[in-house]
Amino acid sequence: MEQIVIKVENAQKTYRSQKEALKAVKGISFIVRGSTCFGLLGPNGAGKTSLMKMIYGASIRDNVPNSSISVFGFDPVKDELQIKYLCGVVPQTDNLDQELTVKENLLIYAKLYGINKTIANKTITDLLDFMELTDKANANIKELSGGMKRRLVISRALINKPKLLILDEPTTGLDPQVRHMLWNKLRQLKKEGITILITTHYMDEAFQLCDELIIMDQGKKVIEGTTTDLIKNNIEAYVLEIREKNNVTQLKINPDSLKDIRKEIFLNNIYLYSDNYKTLKNITDNLDSINYHLRHSNLEDIFLKTTGRYLNEIQ
Amino acid sequence: MNEPKIKKNIQEIQPIAPYPSFTLRLYAVWYRHVRVYTKHLYSNGTPPFFEPLIFLAGIGLGLNKYIHIINGIEYLQFLATGLVVSTAMFTATFECTFGTFIRLVYDKVYDGMLAASITVNDLLIGEIIWAGTKGLFFSSAVLIVMALFGIITNPLSLLSPLVGFLTGLMFSVLAMIITSYVKTINHFNFYFTGFISPMFFFSGTVFPTNELPAIALPIVEALPLTHAVRLSRGICLGNINPTIMVFDLMYAVFFIMLGGFCAIKLLKKRLIE
Lengths: 315, 273
Fold this sequence. Notes:
The complex is a heterodimer. Chain A is of the alpha/beta class. Chain A has helices at residues 48-56, 80-86, 102-112, 117-130, 146-158, 176-191, 203-209, 227-234, 277-283, 299-307, and strands spanning 4-16, 21-33, 37-41, 68-71, 87-90, 164-168, 195-200, 212-217, 220-226, 238-242, 262-266, 269-274, 292-296. The longest helix of chain A is centred in the middle third of the chain and has 16 residues, at 176-191. Chain A is globular, with a radius of gyration of 23 Å. The two termini of chain A are 42 Å apart. By secondary structure, chain B is mainly α. Helix content of chain B is 75%, strand content 1%. Chain B has helices at residues 2-13, 22-39, 41-45, 47-61, 75-106, 109-114, 120-148, 160-181, 188-202, 217-222, 224-237, 242-271; strands at 69-70, 73-74. In chain B, strand 1 (69-70) and strand 2 form a beta hairpin. Chain B is elongated, with a radius of gyration of 22 Å. Chain B starts with a helix and ends with a helix.
């Protein structure tokens, strides 16, 4: 039997201040299956974090008809403690206890789950080893680099051996080495059966980790599917990026005259999409190699296609 | 036909979640604060003992030459029995204004803790109990110093740190209510200058409240420190008036319950969106 870990139906969230009401999530539904990695993608302000917080009980969803959230069959509004007990949460900002050492941070956290000291110590040793932090066990938080802090926050989220790991932009601001290391660890956790819910605006991250994902924009779901299907069904296979519009005048072939090409202009660049590699290749014939880039399309292209290239007012 | 089947499936997959009991959760929150506080035992633990020493020196060497007896009590005794609880007021107030605000806004410690299996209520009640504990510790420090110098000698005074505990609770809930409204940390200056300092001077700590104009007495009677000072002085000096003492105790309990309810309700808004 297939296990459904998270079921979100018509979730909505409105933030009310004295002056105005801002609707951050405008009715989103999705299902996360057990032992898979599910991605919530979208630009800043799309409502990803709000949605995530509603799932683990840090935010209360709008009370509207036909709206429900279930995590392991528990409702975050009523069964906050059950859900928190089964989940590990990695928030966007590193909210570690600055006054405690690495090990103390984990020990205090274990206490919040009621884990006894012997088991906690054993788990902490394992986790520090898993996240390659053993050398830093007695370091103060201030001595840690950004990447170490992130690894510690993830270790902290794993202290209760969660069945569901929720990560909010886990690799934002980290260098490539740390990102790849974390991706590896997350894949390893998934293999061990942990379900992962992750928000990100890095398409490569989603591609590396997610089995299924949704792209959100301005509180709504724009697109959903498995990672490979999304690329196959929503975008042409290849993209030709031409920098500097002026270069177009050098082209032998006018792209507008070709049928199987979709053209997009943004700022000073031209993007030509096509399923036919040859067509695009022909266009580049008399371009300087420095002025163009012909490549496979990726999630980022879908992302930009669905959410637009321009910044919106909350980005 | 389908409906019950789906329901059954959900139940089948629902894992057990034996989250810790309310008491254990409160203990965990309290323990976090104890751990952080005792980390800097030397810098955190010695000032509570030095402060009463400074008072003793300042008053004993200076003021005591001019004032000997107040309300039939030696002035040093009068002051010392007040300081036992005013110190608890100050520490609990600092803890739940600046301390709470920093944990809430700057360090985001609460966000981190709340992702674990505790609720906002657990977090805040644990914090209030911690502030009470600090009150108890600071009261004890003053009591020890005063006993060493032979100023407070009544064995019954060993109970006065409990009044310090209650004082800590009262002022932590009050401070939390203020914290729930404060937008920038500098606003606490108004609370300290406008409320806590006058409270120290006009609640019978440094001079008897009956020296105040009659019109001010109901106001003084409404202030929490007045009751704490009266309890502490009664216990430390052994002149107990049961009626007044029960009244003061009931005031404290009522204040903590009502204030705690409001503080949690108000701060919750800043912790859960």
